[in-house]
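Notes from the 1:1 (GR / supervisor)

We went over the backlog. Supervisor wanted to see one worked example end to end before approving the batch request, so GR pasted a single chain during the call. The sequence is below; no edits were made to it. Supervisor asked that the structure be written out right there so they could see what the output format looks like.
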Amino acid sequence: MTPLERVSSIKVKLGLLVAASALVAAVVASVGRVAGVSPWISIPVTIAIALAVTQLLAAGMTSPLRQMTLASRRMARGDYSVSVPAVGSDEVGQLGRAFNTMASDLGAVDRQRRDLVANVSHELRTPLAALTVVLENLVDGVGSDPAALQTAFGQAERLSRLVEDLLDLARVDAGKAPLSTSSVEVGPLLEACVAEVRANGRPVSYEIDAPADLVVEADPDRLSQLVVNLLDNASRHSPRDGVVTVRGGRDGERYHLEVLDSGPGIPAADRSRVFEPFGTLGASAESGGTGLGLAIARWVTDLHGGSIAFLDPLPGASGARVRVDLPLRPPARPLTTHLTPTHEETQMPTTPPAAEPAEPSAPTKAAPAVSGDVAASPSVLDDIFGTYWPDTGVPGRFGLFLGAVVAGLLGGLLFPDRNAGLGTVIVLLAAGGVVMLAGKERRGWFPILCYVLFALLSAVAVVRDAEWIVALSIIASIAVLLSGSTLAKTLLGIVLAGISWPLAGLRGLPWLGRTMTSVSGKGHGAAVARTTLLSLLGLIIFGLLFATADAVLGSWVDQFVPDIRPDTFAARIFMTVFVFGLVLAAAYLALNPPRIDRSERTTQPVANRYEWLAPVGVVVAVFAAFLIAQATAVFGGEDYLRETTGLTYAEYVHQGFGQLTVATALTLLVIWAAARKAPTKTVSDRLWLRVALGLLTAEALVVVGSALYRMHLYQEAYGFTQLRLLVDVFEGWLGLLVIAGFVSAVAGRAIAGGLWLGRFALVSGAVALLGIAAINPDAWTAQHNVTRYEETGKIDLDYLRGLSDDAVPALEKLPEELRACVLIPYDHDDDWLEWNLGRHRAGGQSPAYTSSAVMRDDPTAVCPNESRYVD
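Structure output shown during the call:
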């Protein structure tokens, strides 16, 4: 049962839903703020929990509507066996029940239609076959005696009666059978009906028992048709020399007619079906009936506002007994009747007569609900994401859910109150293992390479202490992991894979629901919850008892279990939910990646060569002018620079470095555009493309070299920093991409649509980042600053104090008076989950994080003011 199932108003449900979601969001946000949780963690967790509460409370509110949409589509294709859950008491539940009733009625109508067509075809075929045989004999000159003609005439009459009965049914069902009432004497009418039936030559005798003075208002033709059909049905099912009795009587403001025979009778279980067209008592070909007489009798009764039913035989008698109960005066406006009774009509018992209660017809059963017939109901998220990210019924994977739970618990236990180290790597590898398991069906060299790079980049957290390189490595590890699990190919596809990761938390909600249903639907939901709860209780209770009873075991527990204090408990809960959500979203992204690498439309090359060659030529000329200016500055010397620009050489090289980096990146765009628009059908076209882009690439590489040389000169003048090292590597990586772009262009592939260039950029960037981590950037920076101090006597002590523990071995080479200014004794109290190679090598020493002002206030700290660093 859903939480809001008993609420009887959809408006009240929506109000409660909004109120509960807002209350939960407010409480969670307040707890996060009090616990000091970062907004980057608390906001996503608050939104996720509020959405979870909304999903829980909204379960069952709109699902019947979506299921009705799917069911109506199936009904449009002729499948009326569908049903939707309608357990609520609100408007949606009422609509669901009405929908199920409608589906049941339509199913019954459809079955009756098929039965009618089949039975009419059968009834027509029998006399037609007999009539055809007689006519064939007549054509062949055989059997032209009166007996043969009489046989043909009898079959023709049978066809005529069948057609007339069908026309009567059609008129009654269409409501085009109005009554033409008048005063009718029941006794004479019964005698006329018996005479008509006796003319058929049935070997039975008839008895009439009706008051001579009984006069009613009725349609004489329709009433005669009713009685004749009942008598004909009784005579055909009576034995030879049997007796058929028809009698009538008045019951207050109503009167009744009964027809009794001496045949085998009708079982009580079949009495509700005999009034259907071609029902169970419909006459067969041997008995000569059409199978429609009792159906017509019922509808004539309905037209007069009465009821008809088969009753038990009279005491001491046998055979069938049918009773018609009619009003003395029919309703002013007769009831509209139908070929097939509706669901409501089948539930209404026939009106019992005043003298003797009639047995009501048993209700026709509605179409049974089919379990799971609308399990794959569409989701509103399908309309949001459309064809970009279809959810083609990805099966639930409870193993991935449990893996995300384990990764979330590890994150909540190992992340808060710990520096990056071994515990960080454990959480990253656990999360990556879940994503790899989700994308295991994607094979090939690229996923394997990405997973290896992911592991190497994650390991940086246990090797280096510098927060900036650890953060960049973790971001890069996530990028290669997502690209490998989604098989992203192009540059745009790799970017979209990263953007799709947070969106997967929303897109994967239906999959998460299927995952939970896959457990609860098999009856394991309660068992799993019960087992988990009992296992946790056993672990906590007995673990605490034995840990407090044995000091050795207690020390082991202290090594593995974090110190969960009340002030950190909320933070750990937030971190657990945060990591769990991220891992589960990445797992769904790997399991069902979006269409991030759609085939690009074929770009039509330009008609004339100059349309692409002229713009590229202009860029080549601008590059050439820049290179000429560079050469002039180099050969002219610093005096020439001061005369023309007023800048020193150091200021000159620093001024243009950023512009050169941007120009290198834009060169990639120029190569991409030229490769897409340049025609390559002829040898001449391909030659021009290679020459133009070759010149541009060569000039771009010279610019890259110039930028790197400028940065080298700037570092020699102003010192070395991590940022300048990172920019050096980034500029070199751009130069490598320019070469790759040129190769891709001359090979006939557009740079953004190639099958390898995007992956090459990703892999080469990850390898470059690993290279930076491998050289130990903080130690490299410290070493070069120490060397610069030894050569020039210049040093930036404030900057060196901000380096991580990775730089301690290099900074220990400074003279004692300077070393004391950048290094202070610091006792590390890290546990084994915080172990880090950089901090371990620091040997108990750490860079001083104390500000220069504090040092000046300390009379024992004597540090020279030799900072020459200018950023």
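Supervisor's comment: The chain has a mean pLDDT of 76.
Batch request approved.
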